[in-house]
Specification:
The chain is α+β, with helices and mostly antiparallel strands. The chain is built from eight helices and seven strands; from the N terminus they run H-E-E-E-H-H-H-E-E-H-H-E-E-H-H. The longest helix is centred in the middle third of the chain and has 28 residues.
């Protein structure tokens, strides 16, 4: 009788769907699968129970312009900090969901494939109208990440202003990558739809590199030129 074949070791970034946690689709492909309507209370919830609200481009534009009218140039920092705080809280909730849904209640997001983790994190934001993203991890050896957003909810609601406007997104990426990488990260938009470009582009890294990127952005450098300078 032949000896049994030894089991292959499970790679550290394997995915283990398990019973319990979130059943059904792991990701959601149309809004009808993602939102739950409570008609009696007039409430809207996401599939995982979070309360949600539907707003249009006019609301987003008015919110940004209203804050800028009240606090001036500080509005950019305010939106950045809002995005950062939101992402830090959301990543903790997301990490718990991923551990239950894909990690068998044991494997953490840091033990899973990074690109898979990030796509799972951003997918609900795509569904809710924040735009499609493209994540470039090829600069990881220099501790930099580049994110592209197509159809930014903020940029599409604003006029062509000739300057970056997606400060909320920059804060989101700073907060999310700080939690995931377990070290302080900052983010800056180095290219924006509001400047006449097809996509918005963000650079995520440590404070020194982001400050350097901000300097070159203010000098009028292109996104490609900024990336070149910050890699030196």
């Amino acid at each position: 009788m032949a000896a049994p074949t030894p089991a292959k070791p499970v790679p550290s970034d394997a995915i283990d769907p398990v019973d319990g946690g979130f059943r059904g689709y792991h990701n959601y492909f149309v809004p009808e699968e993602f939102f739950r309507h409570d008609n009696e209370r007039g409430a809207l919830h996401l599939r995982d129970g979070q309360r949600a609200a539907r707003v249009g481009d006019s609301f987003i534009s008015s919110l940004h312009l209203g804050i800028e009218e009240e606090v001036g140039a500080t509005s950019a920092l305010m939106m950045y900090q809002c995005g950062r705080s939101w992402a830090e809280r959301d990543m903790k909730r997301f990490a718990d969901r991923m551990r239950q849904e894909f990690g068998g209640g044991r494997r953490e997001i840091w033990q899973m494939n990074p690109r898979f983790v990030w796509e799972c994190w951003w997918w609900p934001l795509t569904i809710t109208g924040y735009g499609a993203w493209s994540l470039d991890l090829s600069f990881q050896d220099r501790e930099l990440t580049v994110v592209e957003i197509r159809n930014s909810a903020v940029a599409r609601s604003m006029k062509l202003l000739g300057k970056p406007v997606c400060h909320l997104y920059a804060g989101l990426f700073a907060g999310a990558f700080s939690v995931y990488e377990k070290r302080a990260r900052q983010s800056i938009e180095i290219q924006c739809y509001s400047m006449g470009h097809d996509v918005c582009k963000f650079l995520v890294g440590d404070e020194k590199k982001v400050n350097a990127a901000e300097f070159w952005r203010q000098e009028g450098a292109s996104a490609q030129e900024i990336l070149g300078h910050t890699q030196d």
